[in-house]
Amino acid sequence: MAAIDEIAPDIFRVNVMTDPELDFSTSFFLIRDEAPTLVETGFRRVFDETHRAVSQLIDPATLRYVVVPHFEGDESGALNLFLQRAPHARPVCSPVGTAVNADLADRDPLVVDDDSELDLGTRRLRFLITPYVHTWESMLPWDPTTRTVFCSDVFIGPDSGHATTDADQSDYMIEMYRSVGIFPSRAHLDHALDKIEAVRPRTLACHHGSVKTARISAYLQALRATDVTGVTEWNPMTEAPDARHDH
Ligand SMILES: [Fe+2]
Ligand SMILES: [Fe+2]
């Protein structure tokens, strides 16, 4: 069964362990408001499990928005399955995401950018457009009410069964990024870090690993100080990333 934890008021993390050996899990988030909203969907292959988890928090048929930070199996694989069960739900995508990938969504996306505010009822969701962090279309939603940034694949960390952490796990993050090579350039990463820093996040709602509730400047600093960009020909079929934990 997917784990459910409230990581900020009315923001719930739905988490599934992806690779126990790597201590690597995948989460998505439900914002419970007048317009119930998912940020990411998790993989299609675990939809039965995650749909059941969402059902414990809201009636999934009432979902209004499904935010897609980028199209990829773990971010949006279950998008159309959630849409099928929620007749009024719309995908929410960046301009590039809509132009390039709307074909992957069974319902027309709502297009958002840095100036957009999505009215959820008691809160308004906003967006940071962050190209190539780590796909062309990338954007990171954020909630000004709780200063939560839904940081997608930025600030990847271990899970260890903890929904949140106040520890500094930046070493794991750096080793993981160095070995898998998901960021194409320093300029793109810095552009994203500038935008994230500017909203002064209190919580980093990570899509892989524990949600970070403290030491946020340590993570920003680690990514500024270390080169994690460039070409890496990682073969996930044959090699584990260096951040692998030996149990
Ligand atoms: Fe991704
Ligand atoms: Fe991911």
Detail the topology: elements first, then pairings.
Elements: E1 3-8, E2 11-19, E3 24-31, E4 37-39, H1 47-55, E5 65-67, H2 73-76, H3 79-84, E6 90-93, H4 95-101, E7 110-111, E8 118-119, E9 124-129, E10 139-143, E11 148-152, E12 164-165, H5 170-180, H6 186-198, E13 203-206, E14 211-212, H7 216-225
Parallel strand pairs: 4-5, 5-6, 6-7, 11-13, 12-14
Antiparallel strand pairs: 1-2, 2-3, 3-4, 8-9, 9-10, 10-11
Helix pairs in contact: 5-7
Bound molecules: fe (ii) ion (2 copies).
One fe (ii) ion (FE2) binds next to loops.
Jot down its keywords.
alpha/beta; Metallo-beta-lactamase, Chain A; 7 helices; five-stranded mixed beta sheet; binds fe (ii) ion; single chain; 247 residues
Beta content: 15-25%
Distance between the termini: 23 Å
Low-confidence stretches: none
Output the CATH topology: Metallo-beta-lactamase, Chain A
Secondary-structure element series: EEEEHEHHEHEEEEEEHHEEH
Biggest sheet record: 7 strands, mixed
Based on the structure given, which CATH architecture is correct?
Answer: 4-Layer Sandwich
What is the general shape? globular
Give me the side-by-side strand order of the main sheet: 1-2-3-4-5-6-7
Helix proportion: 10-25%
Q: Return Rg in Å.
A: 17 Å
- Small ligands present: fe (ii) ion
CATH superfamily: Ribonuclease Z/Hydroxyacylglutathione hydrolase-like
Secondary structure class reads alpha/beta
